[in-house]
């Protein structure tokens, strides 16, 4: 059985406690790609009235980005851009952006976080919203990148006959990307732990 700390208030924890906890965390963090893939799979069978289920849409978006020669980081962003649909019914892009933030560039993070508003250009006018809501970001340095993501990959990925690679195609790049955080308030502690 794994060693456990014994404190009941965190303020009473000791360095030894944290050595035990840190050891467990390294193991736990290594399972992140599995948990992410398992959560993405929750979208399987979830059509929500769409022509394809949300899992297929996710895989198809990533497939389109991969076939277009995008790098691994971009393809993983495409794969996970809608992973927040299960828990973030009213703000799904924020969930994906938060999961990806430690591992991706600022421009890819911004793209994922704002894709909902940009994707709205293709349908907001049908549901009583402003399809030009994205125009508030017209002068933002990542406007074009985000508009392009929606135009080329997200927007056309509802095709029941469209190429849809299986998750196994994306698993290695997901594992590589999540092997080490680029930014995290815990990064310094993690680096010391690994040393
Ligand atoms: Fe979305
Ligand atoms: Fe999408």
Automatic annotation (TrEMBL):
Protein's UniProt name: Phosphohydrolase
Origin superkingdom: Bacteria
TM segment ranges: none
Molecular function GO terms recorded: hydrolase activity
Taxonomic path: Bacteria, Pseudomonadati, Pseudomonadota, Betaproteobacteria, Burkholderiales
Keywords recorded for this protein, A-Z: Hydrolase
Signal peptide: none
InterPro entries documented for this protein: OP_Dioxygenase
